[in-house]
Amino acid sequence: MEISEKGYRSVTVTDVVKRAAIARNTFYENFGSKEDCFLAAQKFAMSTALERVIAAAGELDSWPWQVRAGLAAFLEYVTAEPALARTCMVESLSAGSAALEYYEESQQAFVSLFRLGRDVSPHGTDLPETLEEAIIGGVFWIVYQRLAVSEADAVVELLPEVVEFTLTPYIGSEAAREVAAGDISGEKAQR
Amino acid sequence: MRASDSKNWPVSQTGLRSSGSVSSILLSDPVNPPVDSPEYPPELARLPPGRHGLPREFVSHNQRERLIAGLAEAVSENGYAGTTIAHITRHAAVSRRTFYEHFNSKDECFVAAYDSVMSELRQRVADAFEQEDEWPQAVRAGIAAMLEFLVAEPHLARLSMVEALVAGPVVVERYDAAIQDLVPYFAAGREGRSADVLAGLSPTTEEALVGGMVSLISRRIFADRTEELESLLPDLVEFTLTPYLGSVEAAKTARG
Fold first, then answer.
1. Which of A123, A135, B33, B206 could crosslink B183 through cysteines, CB 3.0-4.6 Å?
2. B81: distance to nearest CA of chain A, Å?
3. Which pLDDT does position B28 carry in this prediction?
4. What domain count does chain B have?
5. Which member of B197, B213, B247 has the closest CB to residue A134?
6. CATH code of the domain occupying A35-190
7. Quick check: A47 contacting B, CB < 8 Å?
8. Are residues B150 and B95 both part of a single domain?
9. HSE-up of A79 (CA within 13 Å, CB side)?
10. Do B69 and B94 belong to one domain?
11. CB-based contacts of B98, cutoff 8 Å, min separation 6
12. Does B98 share its domain with B54?
């Protein structure tokens, strides 16, 4: 996690092997270059985040609550792993175009979860085609803003705001606010 | 093209870059408009080598603009990382020494180019927004102006929305600030809303809206599908107005 301290550009392979307490040979047995190593860290972080989101959402039945649980898992992961999150979300911007492309594409893994909301929305068929892409971009942007100024602790506190932001286009602002407030009794009564 | 055509000297007639719209934007540096430029005979802007008896300040300013335009062209060909100072000076048709008289590094030249593009973009958005009386229509006009500019100038679109992200921390900081500068346009929509609507907005609503909007735009540019941007207008308008107007009303404004 050398990168989160020095920034991608100034980190050398020597820094990485020193921090990881491995031999330089071992580094090159595993990775072709600093960029390869970065991409691997990025893939690890994004796939772990996605696994946690899916696992958390899968525990609930109704879509708005699934979204809430998924977003909570995502924000908790970011707050729990600030160095990894920073590497993945902030440093990926300066780590070359392959990293940037991967970052952009992996965000879109969340599309399918959000898209299910069209089935429960009273105007689901009228929603803009790009809605999910825009929502995800917005959520990542506000998380990124906190990480860029090293406020990872504040990320988990964004939960009510991002839940409301995400759900409003589908179920309206009042229902979205209820889920955002986190009173799950209504959801349990339904089941 | 309105702003640069009317307020700046007619670069398109200089023969400097007859085909490149990149340079017509960048050469009309809105931050440092050339002194007395409208009276200047356009053909002299070619700056033939050797003694030309032109005022030193003019020559120097012209070279700086050419370098900025040269960087934009070089970056659109080679990407930021692949661009060298030799690429820039070749496109600008100036010497390496001249480059270093104006900039210490490729990064510094990139920052100057980025600032020129963003100041042009900002101006167009502000003009479009101010021309409308009603806030929802003003938002629509501002977004339309932004998309129009990016579609008309695909190289500058790439420079400002994609290459800027890989051009190092100084530019990324400026990029972040430029996006956050859009927040007040949306925050203006809170004015006069009912308590109920306001209760549905959080302190980060506007930030999330501009982040979402920019993400949609930059993903298209990243994928070299810049020409699709104008068709995003209704989606972007509906997305950004929904928190304030509700989705039915927002969709109506989005359709124009």
1. B206
2. 8
3. 52
4. 2
5. B213
6. 1.10.357
7. no
8. no
9. 13
10. yes
11. B63, B67, B89
12. yes
**Chain A residues close to B196, C-beta within 8 Å:** 174
Using DSSP's 3-state secondary structure scheme, residue A33 falls into coil
More confident residue, A139 or A102: A139
A residues 2-21 lying closer than 8 A (beta carbon) to B: 7, 9
Question: Which comes out higher in pLDDT, residue B65 or B132?
Answer: B132
What is the rounded average pLDDT of the residues B3-23? 37
What are the chain B neighbours of A130 within 8 Å (beta carbons)?
Answer: 216, 232, 235, 239
B129 and B244 co-located in one domain: yes
Q: What is the pTM of this model?
A: 0.80
Q: In sequence order, what are the residues at sequence separation of 6 or more whose Cβ sits closer than 8 angstroms to the Cβ of residue B124? A: B3, B145, B146, B148, B149
CB proximity list for B134: less than 8 A, separation 6 or greater: none
Domain extent for B88: 2-103
Q: B209 and A138 in contact by Cβ < 8 A?
A: yes
Q: Are B22 and B129 within one domain?
A: no
**Whether residues B90 and B116 fall in one domain:** no
- Interface confidence: ipTM more than 0.90: no
CA distances (Å), B152 to each of A65, B9, B20, B157, in order?
Answer: 43, 20, 11, 9
User: What token pair was written down for B212?
Assistant: 């979402």
CB-based contact, B210 to chain A, within 8 Å: yes
Q: Domain end: B103, B123, B145, which one?
A: B103
Query: Are residues B86 and B129 both part of a single domain?
Result: no
**Whole-angstrom distance, CA of residue A159 vs CA of residue A76:** 9
In terms of CA atoms, which chain A residue is nearest residue B206? A138
| A18 confidence band (pLDDT: 50, 70, 90) | confident
User: Which of B103, B132, B164 is the last residue before a domain boundary?
Assistant: B103
